[in-house]
Write a structure and sequence with these properties.
single chain, 406 residues, mainly alpha, 16 helices
């Protein structure tokens, strides 16, 4: 457009020219900043890493337990924009597709044989006590028989009792579900149980200069043995109670700190509950069979609590700690008679003085009482830390947590 004087006043942009200008590419000298690369979906990495766990989990609680077993804590979950592990597990459970349940092995119906399974487990848990009573009665009936006959009867009773205990701990709530654990743990448990039956007699004979075998026949502590054998049934009941309550606490907790704070009182309560049942069994056996020395009964109670805590830790995924606790008690019990025998060597100082002083002051049963009490307290302290994590309380495999209540 021009003025009457013929001067140019400037060009007026048409709408097409304006769009063309705006669509013009930028100049080459104008550097384009690349977009910052970062995980827009940080949870996707966890989805791929734990695909198998999330696809086969029955609920979000199982994913939370698995994540915690792999070292994921509430602090780690915060880096994935979640307040805690449970919130992260809920998102993983919601986003990962479920695996085909038809491809998973397992019986389609699990509720039909539940009552029969409880009956069988209860019978197996009572079997060691029945076998121990039968073995004690058989030994009492051959007191006047030749030593070879008494030895054969005693050995047969021990073998049958060991088989009964093996069946009892491999069924119901006492069955291991995290592998088999250290095989040597059974040896430590057998040693501590054998010392509870024959250890006091052996240590007393060694301190007196004996034993003079074969005239000095081993004398067994029958009442503690019978009580400990029958204690397998309340141990199974207490273990089941702790497992069920632990799963309920896991379902209701919204963080690892809350879970730990609610599980610790459960562990202390179940330990006291089992201790009360064991003391009742010990007092009843002592009243029927005799041998009610308080120190002997106290040593047997400490051993029972030690075995219970060791099995509870092994059942919930900590068999190494359980084996370490049993090994420490067995080692302390083995040191006492070993020191007495070493002190008999010529030129050796009286290294058995502490053992002799303890046995003279309180009795030979003080040795297993101290050893088992110290080991049981160690396992209890460890359990207050180990059993407070989500990985120690897996949900029931079939979703029927209450199916096997004794």
């Amino acid at each position: 457009m021009t003025t009457p004087e013929g001067g140019a006043t400037g060009a007026v942009e048409t709408p097409g020219e304006a769009r063309a200008d705006r669509a013009a590419p930028p100049r080459k000298d104008a550097a384009v900043r690349p977009p910052r690369r970062g995980p827009a979906d940080p949870v996707r990495m966890l989805m791929h890493r734990h695909q198998e766990l999330c696809a086969h989990a029955v609920d979000a609680l199982e994913i939370a337990a698995g994540l915690e077993a792999h070292g994921v804590t509430d602090r780690t979950a915060a880096r994935f924009r979640h307040r805690d592990v449970f919130s992260l597990a809920e998102e993983l459970y919601a986003r990962v597709p479920r695996a085909d349940p038809a491809a998973a092995p397992g019986p389609p119906h699990t509720t039909a044989p539940a009552r029969r399974s409880r009956t069988v487990c209860g019978a197996l848990h009572l079997l060691p006590g029945a076998v121990c009573v039968a073995a004690a009665a058989a030994l009492a009936s051959v007191t006047t028989a030749p030593p070879a006959v008494r030895t054969a009867v005693g050995a047969s009773g021990l073998v049958l009792l060991a088989l009964a205990v093996r069946l009892g701990v491999r069924s119901g709530p006492l069955r291991l579900r995290h592998g088999t654990g250290p095989r040597i743990a059974g040896l430590w448990a057998a040693w501590t149980a054998g010392y509870a039956v024959y250890g006091d007699w052996l240590l007393g004979q060694l301190l007196a200069g004996g034993p003079d075998l074969p005239p000095a026949a081993p004398r067994a502590a029958v009442a503690p043995a019978v009580a400990l054998a029958f204690a397998l049934a309340p141990a199974a009941g207490c273990a089941h109670w702790f497992t069920v309550r632990g799963r309920r606490v896991l379902a209701a907790s919204r963080g690892l700190g809350e879970l730990a704070a609610r599980v610790r009182p459960l562990l202390l309560a179940v330990t006291l509950l089992f201790l009360g049942a064991l003391v009742a069994l010990l007092l009843g056996a002592a009243a029927v069979l005799g041998g009610g020395d308080p120190l002997v009964l106290g040593a047997a109670a400490a051993l029972g609590v030690l075995l219970f805590l060791a099995r509870l830790l092994a059942v919930h995924g900590f068999p190494e700690a359980a084996a370490a606790g049993l090994a420490s008690a067995a080692a302390l019990e083995a040191v006492a008679p070993a020191l007495v025998l070493i002190a008999r060597l010529p030129g050796v100082p009286p290294v058995d003085a502490p053992v002799a002083a303890l046995a003279t002051t309180a009795g030979p049963a003080a040795v297993p009482a101290v050893a088992c009490t110290a080991a049981a307290l160690g396992l209890l302290v460890h359990g207050l830390r180990a059993l407070t994590g989500a990985c120690a309380h897996w949900p029931a495999p079939s979703g029927l947590a209450e199916a096997h209540r004794p």
